[in-house]
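Hi W., the NAP complex you wanted:
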Amino acid sequence: MATNMQGKTVLISGATNGIGKQSALDLAKMGAQVVIIGRNKAKTEETLREIQTGSGNKDVHALIADLSSMAEVRRVAADFRKQFSRLDVLLNNAGGVFASRQETVDGYEMTFALNHLSYFLLTNLLLDMVKASAPSRIVNVSSDAQSAASINFDDLQSKQSYGMGGFRAYGQSKLMNVMFTYELARRLAGTGVTVNALHPGVVNTGFGRNNKGLMNVAMNVLSLFTMKSEDGAKTSVYLASSPEVEGVTGKYFDKCKAKKSTAPSYDEAAQKRLWDVSEQLTGIAAPAAV
Ligand SMILES: NC(=O)c1ccc[n+]([C@@H]2O[C@H](COP(=O)([O-])OP(=O)(O)OC[C@H]3O[C@@H](n4cnc5c(N)ncnc54)[C@H](OP(=O)(O)O)[C@@H]3O)[C@@H](O)[C@H]2O)c1
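Structure:
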C-alpha cells in the first residue's frame, strides 16, 4: 500500500523533467501538497498540469527560478515562504553536467553552482521551516559519480582543470552533495529533521542532453541500457515518504538501501571546510546552533 502523504508539503527542485518530475508525480499521487521548481515558465506550467492530471491531485503548485543564480535561489525561497506555511520534505534534485566550462551570473562554475551551491543555499534558507515542520526530511539527489571523485579546494571553480567532458566537475559536485548531507545531518541532530543523499541509478532522462556533439551521442547510446524515470525516482520517493526511514539520517542510499559512499566523503574536516566555503560563496550566515 502506498504511503499516505496527506497533510505534508513537499518542495522539489528540477521537477520539470526526468527523476524530479516522476518524484513529484509519485508524491502527488500519495496525497502530498507538492510544490515544483522549474526554470522555464511555459514548461513548468505544462508540467504542473501534467502532474495534477496524472495524480488526480490539484494541490500541486509551481515556482520559477534559475537555480544556478544565487539571487534566484533567494527569491524562490522567499516566494515559497510567502505562499506556504510548512515544509515537510525538501527534495534537492535539480542538476546537470556541462561538456564545456560555463560560468553563472555570479561568476561561479556552472556545475558547482547548480549542483552544489543551490542545494546548500535553498536548504539553509528554508531550514527554519523544515525544523518547524519536524519530523521532516531533506533528500539530496547525488550520484555514484561521487565514488570516483575528489574535491580540489584550491580549484573549486575548475579553472585550472575542467576536463573529462565535464564529468570531473560533475563527480566533484555529487561528492559535495554527500558531504553536505553528512555535515548537515550532524548539525541537525536532535531536531527531528533527517537528511539523506542518494544515487537514483542510471536513468534515461534529459541528463546530459543539454550538451551537443559527442555527449549527446553517448547519452543516446547509454539510453539503451538505462532505466526509466519511473524506476529512477524510487529511491528519492522512498527517502521522501517511507515510514521505514523515519529517523534515519546522514546516510547514502542506492536502490532504497543505505550503502557506503566513497572514503573521502567521510572526512569531517573536509565536510566542515566545504560548509564554510559554501557559506562564503552564497553569502549566508551560519544557521544557529541547534
Ligand atoms: N539520469 C541519471 O542517470 C542520473 C544518475 C545519477 C544522478 N542523477 C541526478 O539526478 C538529478 C536529476 O537529473 P535527471 O537525470 O532527472 O536529469 P534531467 O532530466 O535533465 O532533469 C534535470 C532537472 O533539473 C532542471 N534544471 C537544470 N538546470 C536548472 C537550472 N539552472 N535551474 C533550475 N532547474 C534546472 C531541469 O529543468 P529543465 O526541464 O528546464 O531542463 C530538469 O527539471 C540530478 O541531480 C542528477 O545529477 C541522474
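The chain has a mean pLDDT of 95.

W.
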